[in-house]
Task: structure prediction
Amino acid sequence: MTGRNENRRALVVIVDDEADITTFLRLALEEHGVRAMTFSDAAAAMDALLQCDPDLICLDLLMPRHTGLSLYAELVHDSRLRRCPVLIMSGLAVRKDLPEMLERAGGLPPPAGLIDKPIDIDGFLQHVDSLLARNGGEET
Result:
């Protein structure tokens, strides 16, 4: 994003309705030297995302009420957030269906990354490092 402070640690926002996943990922990221914020609700996450200038958003697609896919569509269409990379976290069945889901949602572009659940923490942290480095954030 714009105007980054070189000394600022990267901020990763995790949006997933499963509390055990958000806690696990937040703790792993913090131990890895990355700031993390978590949200269990996509609607609340969008309000916060507009304020916090994240470096990466990790998003579960299948959530109740306001789905991760609808949040992803909002992110893609928001002028302030569209450049922030999104790492989709989802089950294997969603990986197979994701291109069709994106097309049905109005031809959304593919996310910056996709990781399968259950999440392998080493693979997750490698994805995070890669996306942060590609986006100009701090690689740990």
In short: Residues 121-134 form the longest helix (14 residues). DSSP finds five helices and five strands in the chain.
